[in-house]
Here is the input.
Amino acid sequence: MLKNGILNPQVNCALSKMTHLDTMLVSDAAMPLPQNAERIDLAFTLGIPPLVPVVEGILEECIIEKVYMANEMKQYSPDLFAEYEKLFAARQIPIECIPHAKMLEMTAECKAAIRTGENRYHYSSVLLVCGCPY
Here is the structure.
C-alpha cells in the first residue's frame, strides 16, 4: 500500500514507464483517445474526476518539460486556460498552444492516454511532454 502519490495502479505503472520526450494525454471525457497508447479510463461519471487535479497529481510525480494545449481553449474555456497558465508557470513548464486538430494528430504518438470525467470545459485536454532529471 502506497503512503502517498498516485494510488491508481494503471496510472502509476504508465507513468513509471515514461522516458524523456515521451508524451501523455490527459483528456476530458469527450476527447478521442489514440488507439496505440496505453488507455487509462478514470472517468466515473460526468465531471468525476475533474481534469485539473489529475494533471496536478501527475506534475507531483513526473518531470514535465513542456505542455501542448489547444488554441481554442483560450476562446472557449478562458477560465481553465488561466488556471493552466498559473499551474504550469509555477513549475516553470512552458506551454505551446496549437490548433486542436494538430493536437489530435500529435496524440497518435503518445505513450499513455488518461481519460477523466471532465465535462465543464471545451478543449480542456493537455498533452504533457516528459522531461529528464539531468
Q: What stands out?
A: Residues 77 and 121 are 6 Å apart (CA to CA). The chain has a mean pLDDT of 96.
